[in-house]
Every structure is written in C-alpha cells, then in structure tokens.
Amino acid sequence: MKLSVENLVQTPIPTQHGTFVLHYFSNNKDHKEHLALVKGEVAGLENVPVRIHSECFTGDVLGSRRCDCGEQLDMAMRLIAEAGFGVLVYLRQEGRGIGLLKKLQAYNLQDQGLDTVDANLQLGHLADEREYGIAASILENLQVKSIRLITNNPKKMTELQKLGVKVLGRMSAEVPAHDENAHYLKTKAEKMAHWLLGKSKTD
Q: What single DSSP character describes residue 97?
C-alpha cells in the first residue's frame, strides 16, 4: 500500500551529470530518510524516466565490485540527465531489505559458496524483502503521471503497478559484468528472473 510522505526539504545538488534537486521525505512507517533526485520539471508529466534505487552502502559509497549497484546508480543519473528530466528515488532499504548487518553476514556466507539468494535464506530472510509503497507515494507527491522505469527487475515493475503507478515502459539498467560480480549477476538472472542479457555474463 502507498504511505503518507512529507516533502520536507528541497535543495540543488550539482553532480557530474549536472544539477539535480534533492528532495528529503519523511514518512509514517519506517521513519527513514528516503530521498528523490529530480532533474528538470516532472510534475504533471507522462513517461518520466524513473529509477527506484535501494540503498547499497558498499556499492554506492565504497564502490564495491561484489554487485552492480553503484554502477546502476551512476547509469540511472546519466540516463535521466540525457533525457533532461526524471526522478531517482533513493530508498533506505539496504541489502534487499535485510539491513547492512545481515547483508555483510550474507557476504561471508557467499564467500563460503552460497549465492546471494541462498545466503539470505540461511539467515532467515527472504531472497528479496524490499517494498515500494514509499516510492509510489514519493512519485505521487512529485505529481508524476506515468513513468519509464529504469530497471532489470520484473518484480519491481509489477509491485509498482500494483501500487497504482502507471508504468508505460522500461529502460535497461544493465551494466557490464566483471569477474567479481559475474556469479552475483548470474544468480539474479537465474533465480530472480532479472533481464540480464549481456554477452560478458555467464547467464
């Protein structure tokens, strides 16, 4: 379900992809600091490029090569900048929703031979516990009428549509694989049905 959000602060943020306006949202559920980076005018527009990006401290901040998150974040900002308008919603749901502590524990299990899905299951979690109600509410607050979703994840599209978000199409968020994340991406494709077709991948 969509949740109540309040747009408390908006401030310009210059980046390597140009200037975005950063919106800080409060909400009535988890009280976390969810954000939206907005490029150009989006209120009342259709077919707005949108990335719903879940926090990944290791990938987004540290540049970890265990995943593709940081590279996807950069790609999404570039695609939105090239379009001249769009929204990147940054959700504070680390580790597919299990939190940073459990995510790091899952990393250790992966180093012992488990894939990302089985590591989460062994820790007593689902493969993916992310929710998108807050993202839907943020898009509603920003008055976005319909979107082109930047994603490789079919579940994300389905969940947003269930929440009433009008998804008109998809833009690929696929980035090149490398040795450190090839197995991670293979698991995404085989066990989570992500749209990953790159020739450099082993899936």
A: G
CA distance 153 to 151: 5
Give the Cα-Cα-Cα angle 149, 180, 196 (nearest 5 degrees).
30
**Is 90 exceeded by the pLDDT of residue 200?**
no
pLDDT digits over 106-165, tens only? Answer: 999 989 988 888 888 988 898 888 899 999 999 999 999 999 999 988 889 999 999 999
Kindly state the tokens that stand for 105.
Answer: 């524990």
Which tops the pLDDT comparison, 74 or 196? 74
Fold that domain 5-93+130-191 belongs to in CATH: Rossmann fold (3.40.50)
Q: What gap in Å lies between CA 149 and CA 171, rounded to an integer? A: 6
Q: Where are the domains of the chain?
A: 5-93+130-191
SS3 of residue 176 by DSSP? coil
* Spatial distance between the Cα atoms of 40 and 87, rounded to a whole number of angstroms: 9
- Assign 184 a pLDDT band (cuts: 50, 70, 90): low
What DSSP string runs through 70-96?
A: HHHHHHHHHHHHHHT-EEEEEE--TGG
Tell me the catalytic residues: 128, 130
The token duo for 51 is 């990335």
Give per-residue burial for 60-94: e unless 16+ CB within 10 Å, then b: beeebebbbbbbbbebbbebbbeeeebbbbbbebb
